[in-house]
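Thread: Modeling a multi-component assembly for a lab meeting

Hi all, long-time lurker, first post. My supervisor asked me to bring a structural picture of a complex we are working on to next week's group meeting, and I have zero experience with this. I have the sequence lines for every component (427 residues in total). Could someone generate the structure of the whole assembly? Inputs are pasted exactly as I received them:
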Amino acid sequence: MAGDSSWLIYALGGGWGHLTRAVSLAQAAEPHHKVRILTNSPYVAPVWKTMPELDLISLDPKLDFATARDRTIQQIVIADAVCLIVDTFPRGLGGELAPLFKSLRAIRVLVHRDLSPRYVAQGGLRNFVRSAYDLVLIPGEDEATAFASLPLAVVTAPWLVRNPPRNRKPRRRRRILVCASGYANELPWYAAVVSCLRALDSNVDVRCVAPVCPPGCPREYWVAHWPASDLFAAADVVIGGAGYNTIRECVAGQVPLIARPWPRKYDRQWLRAQRAAKTGGVTIVQEPTEAARAAIDQIKRARPPQARTEVRNGAAEAVDIIESVMENRVARVGQ
Amino acid sequence: MNPPGWKCPRRVGFLFPHECERTTPDGCPECEGGRLTDPFVQRTDRYTYTNYDDYSGVGTAGLNRNPNDFTEADGENLVRPRKRFEDDMTAS
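Re: Modeling a multi-component assembly
Sure thing. I ran the full set together rather than chain by chain. Output:
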């Protein structure tokens, strides 16, 4: 992969978020750059199936901690990229990037998703980011604040894996899409939502999109599809978690979201959901019955589909910013 | 005898009431072997305690040490709880 325009995106971490954000950026960059994504997401297979053209290096998520760290370092060294883009974790998810940085020639870009303030303080991350990175990209104005005041931080519009279609087709039956993302142990919650929806209103068209059929969910309701946001445009309301992509894609597609924030080690889904709820379109719930009732209420209040306003995909903007930082570096070296 | 997996449902702790979770009340200094339903119900001064900085009368933890007392090892956690990071390659 080594070459003058090769980029490597470090997208390690559980769930869908890190990988999906990396794919958004890779798609925007690929016409002009060779982009490789390093991931250990358990959901890499559906991504590969949909976008076989992506250069994905997939580490087994079941690797033990030390082996996962070693393989990660190995892959970064092999890639020898001119630009290393690190999603969310400045020092690496296992702290493995910090000692590696001294020997890397690459321009370093941090994608700043929300990060636990306790970790930021405990790890002295502000100083680390200031000294170790050339650029900090914040994908969404209110996404993260820990490094937002650093001079190297730039805010873009949220990154989307697909641009939402402008027009929505009217449907005879109202549809509720249950988007069962997150960790495997959270899937039964979504199955319980499907059961509640069926009990509350049998006329509503319910679909549950998930990588595997959630335990307890009747198979006729299950859809396996990635990216789930392809299905948002055909839904009157989405019930999902409060991770980066679910919130950003629903807001961009102007589809009401009933959000169930889940606890994460580093991400504060509650905070993201609360911020999104303030601007409208997002309702926060906790229990499956609460989610089902909120979705049915939403459908009753819903107006006929209208044309959406134009949405800016921040991934393209991010590519421009990275390119300009790289050009500046080349110009400085040339002087 | 209590059934397997039994945990004491009482609340214990003077400053910070919490679930007891002992697996038997036998020999328990809080409920005196199961005789008291709510061992701390009489501690009505819990929320009007004002002399936080008065350490007179506090001796070293010793023979009569209450298992619910804080120790030196709890100090750091009380001031700034430490959470472990960078130890899970599948976190998010």
